[in-house]
Write a structure and sequence with these properties.
Elements lengths: L1 E7 L8 H6 L9 E7 L7 H10 L3 E5 L6 H11 L4 E5 L3 E2 L2 H13 L5 E8 L2 E4 L1 E2 L14 E4 L3 E2 L5 E4 H5 L14 H12 L2 E11 L9 H22 L2 H22 L3 H9 L5
Helix pairs in contact: 7-8, 7-9, 8-9
Length: 279
């Protein structure tokens, strides 16, 4: 049986785009287990719980209460629940039944591939999957679908479908040194070290991108800190000196721009706090 993992945090069912979408995909979910891991300090309202239990034939719910890191959360679920394929979603993804049909069909005809994913766009620019690079290229015209090279690629976690053997046979897990940003990128990079291909389905996933949204300054500061730390951590083992230098320069100017935009030197200080992680 396949497993669908949805991670919630301080949201009701009616507020989660992912759960609302899955309610319209019940045809494809009839033989899949929906597991909702709630990282909130308090559980779902009983009415929401019983509603989901009534709507899905196979349903499990767990409230961790302590907001575990995503890497720990993913690895815990993967180790404890047996499955053929796992579909990973955050709470803010919009999808249709076609997504599951395309993944399931591709999985049947490509038994040698362990990772299946859709593409994600932001302002007509492909943001997932992408080549791993120190330089931002224009990926607006990336159109190749199907079997694509997995080497040196990154991708978002939400919408990822992964076969069980990737974890058990290839021993590829989500890096516990990362808690939020970079977890998905690191996993796909590690997958590409051991596998030639992944499968990009012809499906555009609608996904909320936090780094493009306006938020309170304090939230932006926390996201920036996590993002910079993850970027430098990944680059430390995969980039050469010149690639690292390019990333450091780019990050420096980004921190300066953010400090100017929000009138707060915290972004600037975050850059210097994390720079040691890259060398």
């Amino acid at each position: 049986m396949d497993l669908i993992l949805v991670v919630l945090y301080k949201q009701k069912v009616s507020e989660s785009n992912t759960l609302l979408s899955l309610l319209n995909c019940k045809e494809s979910l009839s033989e899949k287990l929906l597991f909702v891991w709630d990282n909130s300090p308090y559980p779902l309202d009983p009415a929401d719980f019983f509603f989901l239990e009534d709507q899905f034939e196979y349903f499990k719910y767990f409230n961790s209460k302590d907001n575990k890191s995503l890497s720990e959360l993913y690895n815990t679920v993967i180790k404890r629940i047996k499955f053929d394929k796992i579909f990973i979603f955050d709470q803010d993804t919009t999808l249709t039944d076609e997504y599951f049909k395309l993944v399931d069909s591709a999985a049947i005809t490509n038994i040698d591939i362990g990772v299946f994913l859709p593409f994600v766009k932001n302002n007509d620019r492909v943001v997932s999957p992408l080549p791993y690079s120190a330089i931002n290229f224009d990926h607006s015209k990336l159109t190749k679908k199907g079997r694509i090279s997995a080497k040196d690629k990154t991708a978002f976690a939400s919408g990822l479908c992964i076969r069980e053997y990737v974890f058990k046979r290839d021993n590829i897990w989500f890096d516990k040194n990362l808690s939020f940003y970079g977890i998905d990128y690191k996993f796909i990079l590690d997958y590409g070290d051991f596998n030639k291909f992944m499968f990009l389905i012809d499906y555009k996933l609608e996904h909320s991108l936090s780094f493009t949204e306006e938020e309170e300054k304090e939230v932006k500061i926390k996201r920036f800190d996590s993002n910079i730390a993850a970027s430098f951590y990944l680059a430390s083992s995969r980039f050469n000196f010149y690639q690292k230098l390019i990333l450091v320069i780019r990050s420096f100017f980004t921190s300066f721009k953010m400090s100017f935009k929000y009138s707060d030197f915290a972004f600037y200080l975050i850059f210097f706090k994390n720079i040691k992680k890259i060398w």
